[in-house]
């Protein structure tokens, strides 16, 4: 009999760009020393969770996060690990690498809102967000909504389906804040836009017979547990 298929979807650790308020998207910076330490705590907090396999996006910050977790979690046990470009962050085109204020300054104006807070209060859709990013992108690199939707959904669904047909169990996945938030909206359209996911937070999904169920979002208690374990040694 199969075990339940459970995805532990982790937002990567805090990076240099996260710390100074720059938009990463498909650009990349490594984790800061503080960011690395928080992910070590996360790995310790997850050490009693058995993972059948592990995945991350192909972005450096996600791969670095996955390796740190696996180093702290393994205790000598090898877990198959694969990267998947489909679960990387949204591409912000020419806004990649710029300050967050540039992205969240121009996008609300394109959508006819006064500011970021006004835009979020009015609960825009992810399609509206994607269309506004394309409108703001002067390099024509940003992805259309349908392309983002197809790659993100197929990436996570293929991972879940593969695990289910191979006996189920837990899967560790390291991805990105907006991508994880977007996936939640595809599962439950009533959810608000969760742009503020914490670095190192865990969002947990159950997958059964082609359907996802959200169990928890933005859970940071594993980091706290790992910090306690670390302090005892």
From TrEMBL:
Pfam families: His_Phos_1
Active site residues of this protein: 12, 89
GO terms under cellular component: cytosol
GO molecular-function term, one example from the UniProt record: fructose-2,6-bisphosphate 2-phosphatase activity
Keyword entries, A-Z: Hydrolase
Entry keyword annotation includes Hydrolase: yes
CDD domains to which the protein is assigned, alphabetical: HP_PGM_like
A GO biological-process term: regulation of pentose-phosphate shunt
InterPro entries the UniProt entry points to: His_Pase_superF_clade-1, His_PPase_superfam, Phosphoglycerate_Mutase
Binding site for substrate: 11-18, 61
Domain of life: Bacteria
Site feature: Transition state stabilizer: 176
UniProt-listed Gene3D superfamilies: Phosphoglycerate mutase-like
PANTHER family: FRUCTOSE-2,6-BISPHOSPHATASE TIGAR (PTHR46517)
Protein name, as recorded: Phosphoglycerate mutase
């Amino acid at each position: 009999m199969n075990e339940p298929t459970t995805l532990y979807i982790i937002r990567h650790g805090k990076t240099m760009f996260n710390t100074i308020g720059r938009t990463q998207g498909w650009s990349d910076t490594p984790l800061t020393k503080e960011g690395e330490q928080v992910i070590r705590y996360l790995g310790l907090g997850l050490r009693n969770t058995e993972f059948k396999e592990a995945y991350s996006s192909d972005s450096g910050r996600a791969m670095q996060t996955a390796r740190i977790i696996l180093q702290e979690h393994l205790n000598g046990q090898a877990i198959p690990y694969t990267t998947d470009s489909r679960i990387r962050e949204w591409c912000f085109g020419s806004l990649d690498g710029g300050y967050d204020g540039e992205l969240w300054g121009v996008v609300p104006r394109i959508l006819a809102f006064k500011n970021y807070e006004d835009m979020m209060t009015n609960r825009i859709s992810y399609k509206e967000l994607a269309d506004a990013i394309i409108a703001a992108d002067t390099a024509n690199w940003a992805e259309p909504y349908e392309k983002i939707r197809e790659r993100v959904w197929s990436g996570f669904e293929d991972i879940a389906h593969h695990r289910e047909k191979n006996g189920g169990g837990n899967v560790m996945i390291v991805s990105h804040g907006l991508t994880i938030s977007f996936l939640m909206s595809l599962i439950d359209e009533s959810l608000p836009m969760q742009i503020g996911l914490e670095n190192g937070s865990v969002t947990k999904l159950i997958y059964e017979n082609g359907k996802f169920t959200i169990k928890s979002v933005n859970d940071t208690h594993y980091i706290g547990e790992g910090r306690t374990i670390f302090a005892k040694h």
